[in-house]
Amino acid sequence: MQKRIFSTSIFLVCVIFQCGQPAFAKKMYRWVNEQGETTFSDQVPPENSKYRRESLNEKGRVVEITEQAKTKEQQAMDNRLNELKKAQEKVIAQQTANDKVLLSTFRNLQDMQASLFAKMQSLDTQRNLAQSNLKRIEIQLETQQKKAAELERNGKKVPAYLLNEIKQTETQIQAAYAEINNHIEKKNKAKAEFEADIERFKFLTMKNTDPSMASDKNMDQQTADQIGLYTCETEIFCTNAWLSAHEFFKAYATTPIDTDTDKLIMGRSPANDSDLSFSISKIIDENKKQQLFLDIRCRESSLGIELCASQKVRDIRSAFRSFIEAAVGK
Question: Domains in the chain: how many in total?
Fold first, then answer.
């Protein structure tokens, strides 16, 4: 390997690095360019500041290392990975908080079943009221329509106010049906959430799991499924898992891959309300384990936000770990 010396003499280098007696207290730098050439200098020219360099003291010892400057693309990639890491930590923290609330709210499964029953009764009462209101409005519409029909049979013109009342009543009926459907959806959602909480409560109490350890390497499978997380057991497993992550992306994402590196698979931003854009990142946890984290993005619209909060997206996220495990096990 060729060695180039800038702003110093070979004698000076000898004095600094071999003779052990510092000729100057001035700091020296060492870096290697693309051609593999090593350079020593007491200054770093601007065109060479992009290289990884070592700062050497008067005895030739490395006292500081400046990593190679990153390109804009690399910096953008790092920023995205940091965002995903924060998203992962946020989801884990939320799960931990939910677990603590769950354990502090209910003493046993009987408490949860009683709470679920009370909630269902309350929602049924609200729906029954909405149905009674619908029945009343339908009778009102029937009366108005009969009155209009009677006028027409007698050869009289139906007055504008009556036609307007009929139209308003029909609008009220549509709103009543929408309210009833909303109550049905609220009941189904509340029931599903309660049932999920019951299963979670069973797990936490049966295994005596401390929710504060949710981010530990022994994170349970249920939590991993809820946040879309796969932890690699070995380097080989992670290599195979990364290949499988591409297959998962193709199977479930609706936007094409926009970025594909050894640390990030990212889809194009969602353009439609029905789009699901994926980011799958490879992240190192605090236990030096490699993890694959799935982040799902939807369009920033009311329908997009609703989609990301839907059971469909929760099911996709829950399928991530088992999909990877099944592929790695082949």
Answer: 3
